[in-house]
User: Fold this.
Amino acid sequence: MSYIKSVAGNKSRKIFLIFFILSSLVPIFFMIYMTYEYILPQTSTKDIEDIKQTIIFGLLVMLPLPLVSFLLMSRWIGSLETVTSEIQARSAEVAEGRVAFSSQGIDVHNKVPEEILVREENPNRDNEIRVLIDSFNSVFQTAADQIAERQRLRELLAKLIAIASDLTSELDFDRLFPLIVGEVTAVMGAERTSLYVIDWERHEIWTKVAEGIPSIRLPFGKGISGRVAETGETINAPDAWEHPSFDRTFDEKNHFRTRSVLCVPIKGRMGERIGVLQVINKLDRKQYFDLEDEVFMNALGSQVGIALENSLLVEEVRLSFTSFVVTMSAIVDARHPLTAGHSERVTEYSLLIASDLKRVSIDREALRYAAMLHDIGKIGVSDAVLLKNGPYTDEERGEMNRHPVMTRTILEKFRFPKALSRVPVIACYHHEKMNGQGYPDGLQGTQIPMESRIIAVADVFDALTSKRDYPKYDEDTLLTSDPLPLEKVISILNDGAGKQFDPVVVESFLHCLPKALTMYRGAHFEPSYVDSFLKSREYTASPATIH
Assistant:
């Protein structure tokens, strides 16, 4: 009776009791009513007794069943209410930050309110509650892990898309190399990254170290990267020193320890191997690359392959074009035996100056090609004038001075890429002077492209330090038949600063002069003369002023 009262006093159980009566007892009473009201009056006396006995037996059997069911369901609802109250209490504590999470889920054994744990005196029920809560924690933790995993995969995908965008937008081979290395090192959490390009003709792989430094080359099969290049397999070595293909030479020579290595092939659009991508020393707690890293690295390799293939194609076109330009400049120089190598030296001197002028905006590629081709217009100068050994007449001087215009005319017929569209103009104006007394257009100061001002200094320096058939030095030509001493050349450049030459360019070139002399020591300058000059260090530049 007390239990029924407790049921009646609980709202949810009261609702359950009402629904139970309506769904269980009402149909029984309705069936009895229908039997006595309609069936029995139409039945014989003998059959009535049998029906009554059947009804009584049925009631004795049927009435206890709903009652037992009611009691069991009521107890189950009580347990469910307790669990619900427990979960609500725990959720409130989680929201208030009073419950910590662990790797096993919610810590239900710490900070649990006593009134919840002692609400029921039955220890079996407490165990059931704890089992249910542990199950809830397990489900909750699994869901949280799945959410975190999906978020991490989304972040990795976003990184992959960003890297693909960065790499495919860069076509310059020299800039792409460090970009790939930097991006891969960061996203893979590695200590170092190496990028190798496959040379199928020589059965080697090579990597670019830095500008001006020869590339490192390895034969197929040497080291892990060489094996990947040869076989196309992916190698993941948690302990690099234990892998049979690992070469310890670098580590032992540089006191370095390669702990882990992940190396994948780089493939082009047609599936052919074009390179190798290698990361070493995972920087997280594992200190090795797992299967997930391997999958992501292969995805990276696909993006790197597209970018690298595009860059190599552009580089191949550039090298072909450069080869053509070098050939054209060599043809011009070959017209006179004393000018052999002139265009090459002017180009190297110009690039030295450009490297030194770090604060000045210079188009290095346009400068390179313009310097190579600055004299191509001399193709239009007759041999009688070009090869003349002696002073020029006014008419001959006019013909010689027209070669810059001829240079521009010829170069404008070249199909330069958009990035090199300024080459014809730069090459044309290398005889303009800062004071406006040059040719062909009499430009002055900043009207002259900076690249043209650089070529002007490099061109005159090479002419003054080379043997020519021109007349002896005079103020107009700055040329002499024999090479001038370097001290005299420096004096001429300093005197011409601000008048013929840009003083900033003169100062920069004289600063680079030791490199220029060393570059052509033995090839153009007598080694002993260069050594003596550099030892004496008798070269200074005038104070530079920007005009």
